[in-house]
Specification:
About 20% of the residues lie in helices and about 0% in strands. The radius of gyration is 27 Å and the shape is elongated. The chain is an all-alpha fold and about 60 residues long. It starts with about 40 loop residues before the first helix and ends in a 6-residue tail after the last helix.
Length: about 60
């Protein structure tokens, strides 16, 4: 009789992927993520964006 506890099952190791990474579209291959804002609509939103993005020398 063995009093040692049974080992817990191990999680499977992640599989190695040998695909060409240049064949896949990356996040920066799209226009998303480059600071574009969605149309929130309205003049107040345009004014807020203008004030947020105004260079400091235009104060």
């Amino acid at each position: 009789m063995s009093t040692a506890p049974e080992p817990e099952p191990r999680a499977p190791k992640p599989a190695l992927v040998f695909d060409d990474p240049l064949d896949q579209q990356s996040f920066d291959d799209t226009d998303r993520g480059w600071g574009e804002r969605t149309d929130s609509g309205g003049g107040a939103a345009d004014l807020k964006r203008f004030l947020d993005e105004k260079p400091p020398h235009h104060l």
